[in-house]
Every structure is written in C-alpha cells, then in structure tokens.
Please model this.
Amino acid sequence: MTKQVQQLDRVIIRFAGDSGDGMQLTGDRFTAETAQFGNDLSTLPNFPAEIRAPAGTLPGVSSFQLHFADHDILTPGDAPNVLVAMNPAALKANLGDLPRGADIIANTDEFTKRNLQKVGYTESPVDDGSLGEWRVHAVPLTSLTVKALEGFGVSKKDAERAKNMFALGLLSWLYHRPTEATVKFLELKFAKKPDIAKANIAAFQAGWNYGETTESFSVSYEIKPAKLTPGLYRNISGNQALAYGLIAASVQSKLPLFLGSYPITPASDILHELSKHKRFGIRTFQAEDEIAGVGAALGAAFGGALGVTTTSGPGVALKAETVGLAVTTELPLLVIDVQRAGPSTGMPTKTEQTDLLMAMYGRNGESPVPIVAPATPSDCFDAALEAARIAVKYRTPVMLLSDGYLANGSEPWRLPEIDELPDLSIEFTVAPNADDGETYLPFKRDPQTLARPWAVPGTPGLEHRIGGIEKADGTGNISYDPNNHDLMVRLRQAKIDGIAQDIPPLAVDDLEGDARVLVLGWGSTYGPIAAAVRRVRKAGGKVAQAHIRHLNPLPPNTGEVLRSYDKVLLPEINLGQLALLLRARFLVDIISYNRVRGLPFKAEELAGVIQEVIDSE
Amino acid sequence: MSDIATNGRIGGTGLTLIPRATEKQTIKDFKSDQEVRWCPGCGDYAILSAVQGFLPELGLKRENIVFVSGIGCSSRFPYYLNTYGFHSIHGRAPAIATGLAASRPDLSVWVITGDGDALSIGGNHLIHALRRNVNLNILLFNNRIYGLTKGQYSPTSEVGKITKSTPMGSLDKPFNPISLALGAEASFVARTLDSDRKHLQSVLREATAHRGTSLVEIYQNCNIFNDNAFEPLKDPGLRDDITLRLEHGLPIVSASKAVRRAANGGIEVVDRAGVAEGEILVHDAHNPDPSVAFALSRLDEPAFEHVPIGIFRSVDRPAYDTLMTEQLEEAVAERGPGQLGDLLRGGDTWLVS
Model:
C-alpha cells in the first residue's frame, strides 16, 4: 500500500506523558532529527518541579512542544497540531490547548479504569465520542512495544519503558525525519547496557514500521528544509548557549573562568555544562550555598579570574550583599539569573520576568549594576560575551537576566566564526599609577570609562587593600568624609551610566516608518512579540517593534524612540517592571500588557493585544 | 620519633607553591601606612605585631600574600598589613578566600575572623572551608563578645552572660571552636593566646607549613566589653597550672596537672604528682582518628580549670586547590587543551548553503 504524502509548511507537536515516561528525551530526539533535517525550529519543554510526581496524575504530566517549519519561525507555537498523549492525565492536561481538528495519538494501553479514575474520567474519552472534534489515533503503544521486543531478552518493565522510543519512531515516520542519529544516540546512551540499547533501537524501528503498515495513519507529511542564512548550524538551548558564551568570554578575555555556584532550577545546567570543560582551564566550584558561590567568584575575580556565579531569583536575593561588595570594590563579576516564577520558591520550572527590579535595585545603598538580557536561546551566547565585556572593561558586576523559557527552549544556531568574536582582553595594572611614579592608587580612574585599575595579587609593589567600607577617591583608604562619600556615590553611578555610550542604540523595526504604535519588549518575549508583529502586519496593521537588550544603562536613544510613537505597548511576564522604569525615567506613558502564568506569551494572544491598541488610535 | 625533628610538622608543604622573596624582609616591610584604629589596650594589637613580626620569617614574596577578612573589630586587620588585602562582608571571608586560593595556588591566603564573624553569621562557610581543605590559614580571634556592635553576647560567650541584648543573661550554649573545627573534618586545628607572642608565632609557623586549611583559635582580650576573659591563662600565679601544653610526642601536662586515659574510655585531668610518667597521655597531633583531639578540646568545659593550648590536630589530607588543579591537568592530558571552535562545532551540526 502506498500512502499519501502531504506537504506542510509547519507543524507543532506536543509530546505529553508522565514525568517518568521520558517525554523530554523523546522531544529532544525529535528536535535533533528535525534540526538534522534542516527545518527551522523552536522548542518549549514544560515539566513539573517534582522529579517523579505520583504516576498518572495531572501534576505529574511532563510535556515537550516542538514547532518546526520550512521557513524561519520565532516561537514554539501557540497550539499543537498533534498531541501525543501517553496516558489519560496527559490528554486531560493538554486538551484545552488543542485546536479543533488536531491529531491526538493516544496510548490506549494506559487508558485503564484506574488511570482514568485518577484524573476524573468515568469513561475513556477515546471511546465515548467526546473527542469528536479531533482526529484520534488510538494506538496501544505499550503493548505494541512489548510485543516488538519479545525475544530481546529484556524484562517486561524495560520493554515497557521503551514505549517512548516506539512513539518517537512512529512520529519520525509520520514526518519523514532522518533516523540514523537517533540510532547512534541510543547506542551511545546505553553503551554499557547493550541489551537495553538494542531493545530501544528495535522499539524505535518498530514504531516507524507500525506507521508504514497500520491503517490508523493513511497520510504522512513532508516539511521541506527551511531557507536559513547560509552557515553551519546546530541546535542549542539557552543554558548551553550561555555556558558556551561564558567559555568564549574566558577565551576572548584571556582570563581563566571561575564559576562559583549552588544548584538551583532552572540554572543548574550551566554548572553541569561548564564542569565538563576543564580543558579550558575552567574551575567550577559547587559551593555550600548561594552566598558562598558568589563570594568565591568574587574572591577569584580579586585574583584575576573571570568570576561568574549562576543562579535563579531566590539565589540572587541571597547574593545581594556580595554583589554590593563587588559594586563598591569595583571588581568584574558576572551574575547570571535564570529567572523563574516567584516570589519565594514560586514555580521553579516555570518562566517569568519578575527579577528586573531586583536586579536594578535589590541591594542596600546606591548600588548600580549593568543588566543585559538575551532575547532567544542562541542569543544567550552573545549576551554572555556582552555581559563579560562590560564587567571586565568597567570593573563592575553585571547581571544577566535569562529565564526558564530561554534556558530550556532550543533553536537552530548559526555558529559564529571564532575570529569574528569580540576581543575582550584587558591589561592588568602592573606599575604604580600615581603622579609620583611610586604609589599605586587603586581608585584612580580611567578618565574615559571611569573604571579603576585592576592590579592582582602577585604584582610586586602594588600591594593594596580594598573592602566594603567607603574608600577615599584615588587612594582607596577608608574614608568617612561626607563629601568624599557623595563623590564616590556619584562616580560609581556615572561609571555605569557612561556605559550607555558604549552600547548599540535601540534599533526599531518599522518597515515603512509610518507606524504609530510601538511594541516594546525585553528578554525572552522577543519571539512571541516578533511573531505577533508579523501576524498584525500580514493582516495589514502597522506596528513598529523594538527590543531592549541593555536594561541598565538603557541605550541613549531610548527616550527618543519612545516619544516618537503615539502609543507604546510593553508586554512583560511580570506586573509591569520595565514599564515602571521607563515611565519614571522618560515620563512617557506605557501601555502594559502583563500575564504571569509561568508560560511564555502566545503569538496570537499578543497579536490581538497589538491590534486592539492600533484600533484604539 | 622522626617527625619531632621537623618540630612536629608533617607534610610541611603549605608554602611550596608560593614564590620566595629574594631579599631579607623585616617587620617594617609588613606594616602598612594606615593608622591602626583599635581601642587602646585591645588584644588585636599584640596579634598584629606578632603576625607582622612572623611574616619576614616565611620569606615569601610580599605580593603573594593576601589577607581576607569579614566584618568585626578583628576584620580591620588587613588594612594594617602591607600585603594584598580584602576586607569583605560579615561572615563571608572563608568563601571569598576559597575562590581566591582555589584559583591562585601561588598565593598565601589568610583569613582573619572573629567569634561572631566565623561562628555565627559565617558558620556555614567556616565548616565547609574546613572540610574542603583549601590552602588557607584561618585566624579566629575569639574574645567571646561582639565588640564592633558594642557588647552583645557572642556564640562563644558563656551561658548566663549579661550584656546589652541579654540583661537577664544569655540562654544559649556556646560553641567550642576547637570541637566544632574537629567535627567539621579540619586537618589542622590549634589554639593560642594573644599575649603569648612566642607561642602564637610557633603555632603560625606550623599552620603556614600545613598544606590545607589551618584553623588557629586565638584567645583575644576585649578590654572594653569583656575584659580579662582569659585572665587565668595570663595570671603568673595561675597560668602554669591551668595551661596544658599540647606538643606532639610529649606528655600532656601543666605545672601541676596531667592528662591520662580515664576508666570510662575518655580522658581526665589529674594531679601530676599522683600519676606515673608512663600513664600520662602523650600527644599525637598526627593521629588520623580525631577522637582524642576532640576529647582534649572538651577539657576546658565549662570553666577555665585546665585549658589545652597548642596544636590539637595536624594531619595530611589532599588540599582542595591541589585536587582541582589536578583535574584540570588531567582533562588537558587526556584530550589536549580546549579549542573554542571545536567546542562550538561539537554537537550535531548541519550546513545550510
């Protein structure tokens, strides 16, 4: 039987199952196959904080959404075209997001009376006709897998566990994905358990063959490779890109990287990644707590290292005093905040943009800190380099605000040429800098940047003491002089403000220059906002877009940009933190759009909001 | 005993990675130009002078010495030494010094801290520094009181201490810093006295020679808020009877008392006159088992009846910074130094043309 092949320009698939069902792995593998095939893609993993929530329950549902297309796309997609539901809980938890006509592949083996009861179904929705709006493919994934693995010498439990690979094989057939890399991946992953490797590969192939032979699927789909900017690509998540950016910053600054960190969701993967790259001279230090993590990083910075600490919101709160010490001792330090839903523990695996004001103001005293926010997963690489550039050049702690969505989401990344990366090298001070030619003045500033010299221990003749007590201008000696304090407070602020002259102006995407509405954003909302702007424009609406990367100091033309539009719309995954800053600074009204659901915005939702603002003109 | 010849030292590699000065140094080389601002009569003066006087003996390049401190009276210490110095924040000096020492094994890194700084707000960092065994010298100035905040009781104050914050007496049992350090897997633990310059310097000699974290508790008098807290140890009429000298390989005795094994399995202090020489416990600072050292640390509970002074424990254990460096070297030896281009291209890649 030859099956029909249909062409599509894009597809959104969501894999959903129990936290123990291996949905993240399945999604990762499908993503890798899709990247290999050359589609543009964007992913959204969504999982509970509990490692293994009670099986079969709604809180235990873990999902992975992938959007892939034959053209460039900006978000993981609003609504899935296909839902793979490994159990009733996965179906129930995700059905609300599913548009009419979407495909549901349900693992009917798990639709047992007990599992149905756990989530409040009295009858199986697969059988009772309640899913009439959708195209349901009832597939007994578990038993098909177990049957396929008969004679492989693996236990029934291990055979059942391979059902996610059966599902992956089926989906790989359905969308014509290349399979070699997955086979290799499984061989490598289970290198020490060859029986398990063989079984998983067999399950994967059985899934593919099932698609080809079963009558449940009469059509398969082709999505042609996307025409992306020429170059060498790889798929990368935000946390991995950030780790690579930090390594690149170390190489480009010729400063050894020292990471002081304490495990915290969703930032831990940066620690894991960096700890693998000791060949770059990287020292990773898993500290006893958040405070020790940043303290050790600052100590290393005093010794001439590129000191970095990685954390999430609760950790930033704990590190505040040490960041203040870095502000006043004027030492370079990178503080990476992978924001998550708060306050307090909040929702550790869910995303949010609620740490902006803490990054700006969450310290005692006048304590300005530059802030950089990446816009997409791959942009985390460039943002890390930029944060390091500012930290090292201006001898200041820098906050980098990523978030859970960027950290775990992934997209294709065109690899940069190494020789195009910025040169971040600086010179340590090695000789006395006072006019007498003999004295070292640790707080004598560079007239241009206002940065102080950086003389590291081991440099003869420049022995000096720094600390948290106010320092006399120039000498750095302890000073309680009122006028000196006023001067130092202003100098530290002026140094940070001056960075505005050293960053790109705020770029506005206003195709014909006749839009009256500007939609502004920062951080991870870039994708959904840009996708929404496309929709609005496609429908004939006129809207300009600008995205702020440097949140402190702001680009020098920010006020000018804001004032040149009738209306400025600012969607944020908080209750209006950047809007507050912009209103206060520029006395420009901002229309805030705020949702704090732990999830990224949807393009359709934002398109509607933009259109409303345009229509209200 | 062979290691007595090296003055009780084992290993003695604490300074081997630190560059040596080519010229002879004097106490003047280590005095900074800053005016010392402790209260007149403070025990800190004696410690400062003893340290300044001791550093020339080490013969290290001055620029390779760093003093890191937290907050409190004692934490002003780095300002008065003409070395590199970092006066940080309350309780965090061990963490900051850990980052510095772990990334710069060519530095002699010292932590100056007090009983509040080290044992209250910074207790977590202290115990983890000790178990980790980074090459640090931690000098814990214990005056059993909060000085800089003007006289509240501290985590080493005796129960019932009447202070501004405890007008009816403090309620909480104090830490014994030596017991705490031993419990935290410290590899070098010693106690000395601010006024005994010679002993203080002899302990510093061993502490600096020790590779790993050394904790030196220094009984320090605060003449403003807790005057004469350690007076029995200084009183010429009492001190020789109270002080139990801990010297590796020698019997543990004071002028009139001796330590011996007790029938209950522990140790006890008895009149020296009534005990045979062979019964007296001989101090073994290098015993891998810390239980006797711990028992010794408990002898001065609850009051100063007999106080062990000296090195409780000095054992060889790999230093964290050494192990960290070795992992870096091993990674390079296995696969060569990292190449950024190879790293970025390291995953599954595809070419778009």
